[in-house]
Amino acid sequence: xxxxxxxxxxxxxxxxxxxxxxxxxxxxxxxxxxxxxxxxxxxxxxxxxxxxxxxxxxxxxxxxxxxxxxxxxxxxxxxxxxxxxxxxxxxxxxxxxxxxxxxxxxxxxxxxxxxxxxxxxxxxxxxxxxxxxxxxxxxxxxxxxxxxxxxxxxxxxxxxxxxxxxxxxxxxxxxxxxxxxxxxxxxxxxxxxxxxxxxxxxxxxxxxxxxxxxxxxxxxxxxxxxxxxxxxxxxxxxxxxxxxxxxxxxxxxxxxxxxxxxxxxxxxxxxxxxxxxxxxxxxxxxxxxxxxxxxxxxxxxxxxxxxxxxxxxxxxxxxxxxxxxxxxxxxxxxxxxxxxxxxxxxxxxxxxxxxxxxxxxxxxxxxxxxxxxxxx
Length: 376
Ligand code: ADP
Ligand code: MG
Hints:
- The chain is of the alpha+beta class.
- It has two domains: 2-190, Ribosomal Protein S5, domain 2 (2-Layer Sandwich); 194-366, Alpha-Beta Plaits, CATH 3.30.70.890.
- Helices cover 38% and strands 22% of the residues.
- Strands 5-4-6-3-1-13 form a six-stranded mixed sheet.
- β4 and β5 (69-72) form a beta hairpin.
- The longest helix is centred in the C-terminal third of the chain and has 22 residues, at 257-278.
- The radius of gyration is 21 Å and the shape is globular.
- The model has no long low-confidence stretch (mean pLDDT 96).
- Bound molecules: adenosine-5'-diphosphate and magnesium ion (MG).
- Residues 120, 122-123, 166 line the site of magnesium ion.
């Protein structure tokens, strides 16, 4: 690790960490005012940070191009910043836009969250900087307020119209639990997820198929959902109850129907998953995951051959359930697996990818971990 001292020539004032996430269930629901159920990963973005009194924002990432990006905190312009620096610069910009007195900073980032893998390396990067600014500049913002600021950075500075799930997960998840979040009012509850106690593991398969959520596909899906809600005279698709789904579908143009069906059934799956976890039936989550994948594959159409293969192979090899996680078009799959079958499922997925001639995926178990925090 290239440390802060060697890049900036002094010691940092503090070090913060913010995690990536896997979403158990509730995909493409967050921009429909719906429900999500993410878990924080042990993988985190770590930021060592020191304030500067000359107003300069100097950004370095161990995963970047080896250069220090230098910007003026008071003159940040979305049109003028390119590359990865848009994420941390966007956070400073969003805080300043909201009237917070954030000035110059030296920032050293080192992250082990795989990028572009649907595990939310972008939110980890944004949230770690938001948490650092909050403390160094004494802003007194809550984790949810910081998550909203980080989302604003991604929406309006980076230009990705993402919902708030990733940032809320990175800021608010707790160790040993999943975050049941209502994205309409940000009401949240930690749902205990004692996988080890139930003899289960969450296996993550990073297919290494890179998505690019900035490429318009995501924006198109989001626009489709908003159009459907407007045609149904609803504030958001979250307001369509499952019992009213069939009646609503016939009122919509054919191309919007599968989108609406996914969002409505997916919200119901989140509520079902939470009820199962509350009842201690962790294994019962398996079929809910697999049903969620079918909906993403057949209705929302955001899966790809690699994610479909990982899901089908994991289930055939004995996983209790599996689904793609994240925005889609590649990225990662999560599988709920009995501890005793972990190796068998992982090996089956690796074999299937080799046989199909796909790039070797990265396969690792995920332990529900803590949200953003100060390390030193
Ligand atoms: P995801 O959030 O699923 O990983 P995104 O496309 O939303 O995928 O975000 C990935 C982008 O975030 C990268 O292309 C890069 O610009 C930025 N990023 C994330 N982590 C880092 C890092 N450690 N260093 C530099 N840039 C990073
Ligand atoms: Mg992202």
